[in-house]
Amino acid sequence: MKTIKSLAVVALLGMAGSVWAQADEERAKKIVGGVCFVCHGAEGESSSEVFPRLAGQHWEYTAKQLENFKSGKRKSTAMSNMVAKLTPDEMVALGKYFEKKSAPREPAKDEDLSGMGKYIYLHGNRYSSLPACASCHGKEGLGTASLPRLAGQYAVYIEAQLKQFNLRERTNDNEVMHSIVAKMTPLEIAAVAEYLSGK
Hints:
The protein has 199 residues and is mainly alpha-helical. It folds into two domains: 98 residues, Cytochrome Bc1 Complex, Chain D, domain 2, CATH 1.10.760; 87 residues, Orthogonal Bundle (Cytochrome Bc1 Complex, Chain D, domain 2). The protein is built from nine helices and no strands.
């Protein structure tokens, strides 16, 4: 009898979790449809190269960035206004919503530049002691829960973020990025960004 009751409780908890997940997704859809889609697209595909693609991004990373925009750890006048009323639960819901979306794929626009970027991304530059990006971000650029998915991201956006790390205008993420990007030439930054955009 106790076993049957235990199974019933487990089943009810499972159903409640499923309903809660659906409620979270519905809330995320409403937020996306009301605000996010203008810059990031309804599916996280982004409406411009200056805005990051959120489709396929790790939910933990997205939620962290939203929290950082809200707290001011990451600076952006536009984003700080957008996230001002978001709760932590809504940030997680948005992250999970976009993580489920398929990341768009398109070939790099400049094959020669991309080829150079591939070498730097995978091997670094031993002449300037630049480590391989892949050592942290993975061979495929898929990242982890704490490191962003870079594969398929717009080259313009990646290049802008690398420059912000170099100028110390972006300080909310891994401190290691500052020392790494400081060793990169403008050509290397552009090349790595071009390579990742075509992944």
